[in-house]
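#structure-requests
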Amino acid sequence: MAAPLYAWAADKEIVILHTNDMHCGVNDNLGLATVAQMKQNALQKTPYVALVDAGDAVQGAPIGKLSKGEAVINMLNAAGYDFAIPGNHEFDYGMERFWQLNKKLKSGYYSANFEDLRTKKLALPAYKMLQFGDTKVAFVGATTPGTLISSTPAFFQDGQGNYLYGFNEDKTGCKLYKALQKSINAARENGADYVFLVGHLGLNGSIEYWNSESVAANTRGVDAIIDGHSHERIQGKHVKNYVGKDVIITQTGTKLKTVGQIVIGTDGKITSTLIKADGGDNAKVQKVISREIAKYEPLLQQPVGEALVQLRSNDPKTGERLVRNSECSLADFVTDAYKAVLGCDVVLVNGGSIRNEIKQGVITYNDMLEAFPFGSMCAVVEAKGEQILEALEMGASHYPEEFGAFFQVAGLEYTINSKLPSTVQLDEKGNFYRIGSIYRVSDVRIEGKPLDINKTYTVGGTTYVLKDGGDGNTMFKGCRILKDGEISDVDAIIEYMQKHLNGKNAAEYANPYGKGRITIK
């Protein structure tokens, strides 16, 4: 394995346990109580142990939404996290709530590229130095600049749409690299023998010039990158940094499927592994988890409807996710629900807003919140056909890769020509700017008639996309808003399930691959 850039052997092993993209899955897979026990077990072998998280812990399941993240923060504190960074979803409850959660988190959050644009200073501390005997280890935080569009863009703006916060974003990645290098250098100058970049950056499906491999290739002085965001399991990928030295990149997947372990040996060498085995639960931490969940259990177990067929967002043959790059039955059901309840011509729903399947049988409030955990509010706007086409083109821009902005639809059909390149152009913040000469999307039909780019249609969906420009969908900016947050996504879907879904039309959703609204060629 690669030796660190400035090897300084400790008298005992240094163990760094790490997690990422927990998404409130505190009892899923290994479970947070097991993670806490892993730390205690490691401390029995060496006094030099740290537990760190690479973001997206507080959002993604009912316990997060109902407590606005606080329940998960209490659990992280009980588990004994020493360092944490904000992923893009740590901001999903708004900036005021983010700062409240930051105060409640005992370790606090760190990020070397999250900037308050009003003061031109970092909004959070850039790094934290931990001392293990005579050895200093620095953890530098990094949050993807894509947060500006993948969380709600309006949260980072004032009432006039001016950005108050930024993540050192540009079209090349250079601003990000420079910001991170500055903090890496500061940590080294402050005596760090090892520097670990804890980043919510991602690899596959992430914006290339902001991903962890590009950061590694354009910086120096980092021994390893503890990554998150792309939900991959990476045991220890070796890449070259700016000066040709090895950097390890590691990531644990999502919802505690594994726990990462980096060991700095007494010889100064670094090894990286992923742990899948159950190390036993920490009783004290499990008690905290159970107590927090119990607060909301009566509400979560209330039945809200019945699904007569399983509504799928994954491929039943392979188990792979469908909703971010193809049509599926749950997406058809959701968009139909919006159309029926909102009374609009067309519905556009970003695939990334659908996070779980709906099982056949009685559906509880918990089931609904697991599938739709963001608490999005519904909206209807008036938009030209050209704006609808731009949105579809934006959504198809990453195909065949998964993309959270891939649009599921109702009242509309369209075709994606996968053989054509995407010519969607983005601004420096990752927002839609314009389309070049080639369109991947064609044959767009609304209620069976060809799309008229000059005609005004009513478009339903969420405020996240239609009002706040989520996922970079700025093409709807300035549209007349007809309905603004009058009902939540979950309430709209429950209403449709209770009033419109019956034995006769339930069969419409039996095909897991949908009704043929989206054609790929």
